[in-house]
Amino acid sequence: MRTVGLLLTIIGCTAVTAQPFQWTTYTSTSSVIDLLVVEDHLWAATTGGLFDYDPASGSFDVYNNTRGLAMNQCNAVGRDAQGWIWVGAQDGRITRLEPESGDIRLNYDLQDEVFEINAILGSGENVFVAANNGIFRFSYRSISDNYRVLESIRVLGSFPGETRVSALAVRDGYLFAATAQGLARASLATESLSAPSAWTNYTSANGGLPQNSLTTVFAGDSALWIASTNYVFSFVGETVGNEAMLAGIKTFAESQGVLLAASNNAAFAQVSGQPEQWTALGQGLPAISRIASFTDGDVERFVIGQPDNYSARGGLLYLIDNQWVGPLRAPGIGGNLITAVGVSPSGAVWAGGKNLISADLALNGVYMLAGESWEARTRLEWDPGRGLNDIQGFAFDQSGGVWISSFGSGVAWLRGDEIHYYNHADTAGFSEDGPRFAGIPADPRFVVTQVSVSARGDLYISDRLSANYLPVIRVSAEWIASGNHAVPWNYFSLGSTNNDREVETLIADPFDRIWVSPSGDGTLSFVLNYADTPADSTDDERFVYHPANYEDAAYTCYDDINKQAVDYEIDHQGYLWAATPQGAYYTQGGIPADLSQLFFICVADLPVGTRVNDIHVDAQDNKWFATDEGVAVLDRSFRWVHVFQTSAEADNPSDLAAKNVTSIASNPANGDVWIGTSDGLSRLRTPYVSRGGELDEIWPYPNPFRADGSQRMFVDHQKLGARFDEFRIYTISGRLVRKLSWEQMVDPQVGWDGTNNDGDLVAGGVYLLVAATEDGSAATGKIAVLGR
Question: Percentage of the chain with pLDDT > 90?
Fold first, then answer.
């Protein structure tokens, strides 16, 4: 019996054409959360990273986690006295960026301390950060060449402790904080701002404020301007003035004596000479996050930062002739929650992206990578008959088309420039005059699907809860080759109860049988055999089972296998793998021809994560597990060879965009692995490509190798089959350990002495070996290293 475990042995791998283990992140920076103007450049904190926009050249420079940011979801942007840009991440980490050199400094002082950074304000040698639980005062430390928290200001006078601070401003030597309890003010000359006595409070009961619930505060040219839920007013000295009823204002900007204010969806200008009067500015603003002013050549302009909203993606809007023009946005993928990713046989990368507008509203779309630019291939918004909602997966047919499944809006087929949508509204398919899909009984418009292509080129579609009790659909390779036409597809029943149509993922095995998993509400799994007669349902055979009844409970399955498989994959050795909300399992000895011999083994030692969202098999039969806590990679000999988590993790840090991984695909021609996450799309350059090239296999000796200075590790040059130009040693997380030459590595007396580039002996574990030539050919292998 084969079980999954960590074995320190060696396999030979094959050619590769790119430097391995390089990360790239692709995000959307259209949803602007905060704006900062520095020397007429616009810096924007977005849900997909930080961008620098230069109006003079019209160019965007985007920073995300593979360019040094702590994470991609950014909440606030500011600047310190040394000219470094600060950006606050959703998890409380802060990144400092020096624009000229590109130098990066990370600060972890607020990680796990705050969950919301609302504003970053530099003042003299200090930087103040407004958060959900108070204000944090940072000061520069020359020893670390970074800022560190000098004070945690938790109590602002008589306000309750750890009050949320929504905005900060500095004026006339005072620091002002806007809160739901009112306004708090402290002198910047005070040595300790963490003392409650350092703060003076202004409220409606004590200070003359028209309202306590403050949304923002702004240091204008002539006064401090404050907005509450329903009012806008000035504050000079300790006196409220110029009060106006203006609801929902959350941001101000001022230029050449003109003061602007903006709410979530409207902008207003203060009437000249009448500070209590405001007039609407421009029309049709569905969403606003920040408003700012900057110099565009010789012209002072106002600009709005716009988040993604219910009607479109956001960006930057200019005010020109009293109209808002735009939006401008950096090029990128259409959404940061990647719900599905696929790579076509031609190497085209497809991604399903989603922009979350609210808990129950999202913009959805399908995007294809063309060079380094993403092209939108379907409509963003859901509209039955036109678009897709909640992309679930991709399947690529033998005629060059891509089939896209969704949660709620059926299937789309993209073939060249043609797009066909199949759902309840299609006029032909199930019968000559019936729809392709029946939809769920409660709402025939709602069609939940997943797609898979068999080895012979047939497409299989699951239709969850189909109202006609035909939840499995076959689109033959012949139908696909003929193009879109009215001839019906083949439909299969799994039974006559609701449980028999609660289906989710499906896959065709080498015997052309269809394995069908239940959805979260279902209980039964099926293997459907239509006996080579898809048009004749009278001879169909169904094997019905519950995975827990076929598990190896005594050895690996300590708990029952989860009934729901969210993904099926078949590897190069014929094993069926199933991803579930509680781990993964596979078929013992491959997929049996006789299903009475079916037996499942649990992946009991998954090194990271609990929920497995996807399993992908690459060109060299490695299994990539997409989990809720990162990525784990199992090789064909059932050894864990890689674990990837984010830079915030201590054990397996990498430049993975986010640890919640939704889907994985790879390109066998160049080894690129594409990893969809909840915070962007990651590309990892790997050596796992299809066999080819001149170099063959790396055979290291001795193996295992003891890294204590007593041995030298070398390679058998005859097994390689060709001379290489460079030899590289990596950790399993992809970090470079050492570079060596041909002359060193083929000499048993020289070889590798077990040290890294700093001359320190490495720790025990499994290391990846890569031999590469100047023309791009390469081979890989592994070595088990025993520590001192």
Answer: 64
Here the tokens at position 394 are 């991709």
Cα separations in angstroms, 446 against 310, 359, 424, 673: 21, 19, 8, 33
* For residues 725-743, average pLDDT: 89
> Parallel, antiparallel, or unpaired for β 49-54 and 623-627?
unpaired
- pLDDT score recorded for residue 7: 30
Q: Backbone dihedral region of 420: left (phi > 0), alpha (psi from -120 to 50 degrees) or beta?
A: beta
| The 3-state secondary structure of 77-95, one letter per residue | EEECCCCCEEEEECCCCEE
58: region left, alpha or beta (phi > 0 left; psi from -120 to 50 alpha)? left
Cα–Cα distance for residue pair 165/185, rounded to 1 Å: 12
Q: Is the pLDDT of residue 95 over 70?
A: yes
The Cα 306–Cα 314 span in angstroms is 5
* Cβ–Cβ < 8 Å for 156, 199: yes
Which pair of tokens denotes residue 672?
């690129």
Rounded Cα–Cα distance for residues 88 and 15 (Å): 42
Radius of gyration over every alpha carbon of the chain, rounded to an integer in angstroms = 30
745 three-state secondary structure: helix
Report the alpha-carbon distance of residue 493 to residue 709 in Å, rounded.
Answer: 66
The pair of structure tokens assigned to 403 is: 């089939």
Percent of the chain past pLDDT 70, that is, above it, reads 92
Task: Look at residues 537, 75, 565 and name the one whose alpha carbon lies nearest to residue 305.
Answer: 75
CB proximity list for 571: less than 8 A, separation 6 or greater: 577, 617, 621, 623, 636
Six-digit token string for 641 = 């060879």
Q: What pTM did the predictor assign? A: 0.86
DSSP state of 713: B
Residue 403 pairs with which residues in a beta bridge? 395, 413
Among the listed residues 542, 549, 565, 618, the one whose alpha carbon sits nearest the alpha carbon of residue 780? 618
- What are the strands, taking DSSP E only, across 65-182? 74-79, 85-89, 94-97, 104-107, 117-123, 126-131, 134-141, 146-153, 165-171, 174-179
Q: For 222-231, 471-480, 499-508, 730-739, which range has the lowest pLDDT when averaged over its residues? A: 730-739
Q: Per-residue DSSP letters for 746-782?
A: T-TTTSB-SB-TTSPBPPSEEEEEEEE-TTS-EEEEE
DSSP 8-state secondary structure symbol assigned to residue 560: P
Q: Are 742 and 723 in contact (CB under 8 A)?
A: yes
Gap between the Cα atoms of 193 and 127, Å rounded: 13
* Residue 306 pLDDT exceeds 80: yes
| 388 confidence band (pLDDT: 50, 70, 90) | confident
Question: Of 505, 642, 476, 643, which Cα lies nearest the Cα of 576?
Answer: 505
Higher pLDDT, 679 or 354: 679
Q: How far is CA 326 from CA 176, 284, 296, 319, 775, in A?
A: 34, 12, 15, 9, 46
Angle (nearest 5°) at CA 280 between 277 and 282: 150
Provide the token pair at 132: 């959900």
Alpha helices in 272-396 (DSSP H): none
Is the per-residue pLDDT at 618 higher than 90?
Answer: yes
Dump pLDDT digits (tens) for 502-544. 999 999 998 999 999 999 889 999 999 998 888 888 889 999 9
Q: Is the dihedral of CA 391, 392, 396, 397 positive or negative?
A: negative
- Render pLDDT for 321-348 as a digit per residue (tens, 0 to 9): 888 888 899 988 888 999 999 999 989 9
| Single-letter residue type at 501 | R
CB-CB contact of 587 with 565 (8 Å): no
Distances (CA, A) of 170 to 184, 223, 445: 12, 11, 55
- Both tokens of 189, joined, read 């000359």
The region that residue 284 occupies, defined by phi over 0 for left and psi between -120 and 50 for alpha, beta otherwise, is: left
Place of tokens 């689109």: 475
**Cβ contacts of 242 within 8 Å, gap of 6 or more:** 223, 233, 234, 275, 276
Which uninterrupted H or E stretch holds 400? none
pLDDT at 359 over 90: no
